[in-house]
Design brief:
This protein is α/β, with parallel strands linked by helices. It contains ten helices and 13 strands. It has a single domain (7-131, 184-262), classed as Alpha/Beta hydrolase fold, catalytic domain (Rossmann fold). The longest helix has 15 residues, at 76-90.
Length: 265
């Protein structure tokens, strides 16, 4: 496996910073990798390394995440407008759009909005039917602080989630403390706006697609995954022995599955 270092770059969109990691040579085949809530572009570092220099993995910190600035709007239109601006800026041509959870939903909306920009889709455990009115699975964030004077205080304030977010914390400017890599209220707003019916967008594009489902997923039931594949032409399903957090629980299996899909004509 050939290792390569990602370049951290940024793009200004309407006065906001959109930060992204650019793995591999500019001549590599472009793959846009979109993370889920509570995560960031660096979550695809292992995938980029596994795919090697043949692929240019572009992994943005989506609005309000990681090193990207917070936004006033966490709708699908807001997220997709950032992605289209990034692709236009990089002038990549058609990309493989891969996303996990929130990122998977944003990827399928990108393909529906700009079908010529997406050559193929990889949906990692992102459902297309999330009914409104269901309990927000991220409701526990309501009690989280965004900043704290020390890393230790912030990790402790996050309770059981602390060890997960600890390595992702960012120092505040001037050394005045630390912040989470996401704002709790922004994330709650974003999750709320993910809920709804995305069937029309899932079926709007006809590029080849792969759906990766965790066998014990808390988010995408096997029945819905099967329906998504049966109703969308040129779509295949792979089930891995994980829950919703597929690429974290089985990074090797995830990378192998993606690589095999990318190798198909």
């Amino acid at each position: 496996m050939t290792q390569h270092t990602a370049a951290r770059r940024e793009l200004t969109i309407d006065g906001r910073r959109l930060s992204y990691l650019d793995h591999g040579p500019a001549t590599g085949r472009p793959l846009l990798a979109l993370h889920g809530h509570l995560s960031e572009g660096a979550s695809f570092d292992d995938l980029a390394a596994e795919l090697g220099p043949e692929w240019r993995v572009i992994a943005p910190d989506q609005r309000g995440h990681g090193d990207s600035d917070r936004a006033d709007d966490y709708s699908r239109e807001g997220y997709v407008s950032d992605l289209t601006a990034l692709l236009d800026h990089l002038d990549t041509g058609p990309v493989v759009a891969l996303g996990h959870s929130l990122g998977g939903i944003n990827a399928l909306h990108l393909a529906a909005t700009r079908p010529a920009a997406v050559a193929a889709l990889v949906n990692t455990d992102a459902p297309v039917d999330l009914p409104h009115g269901e309990t927000n699975p991220l409701a526990f964030l309501a009690g989280f602080p965004y900043t704290a004077p020390t890393r230790e205080e912030l990790i402790s304030a996050c309770g059981p989630v602390g060890p997960m977010v600890g390595p992702l914390l960012r120092p505040l400017p001037g050394g005045d403390g630390w912040r989470l890599p996401f704002h709790p209220q922004d994330t709650l707003d974003s999750e709320r706006q993910v809920h709804g019916d995305h069937w029309a967008q899932w079926l709007a594009s006809d590029c080849p697609a792969l759906l990766i489902n965790g066998r014990t997923s808390q988010v995408l039931p096997a029945e819905q995954a099967a329906a998504m594949v049966s109703l969308r032409p040129r779509t295949s399903l792979v089930t891995l022995e994980t829950d919703h957090f597929v690429q974290f629980q089985d990074p090797k299996g995830f990378a192998r599955t993606v690589r095999e899909f990318l190798a198909t004509p």
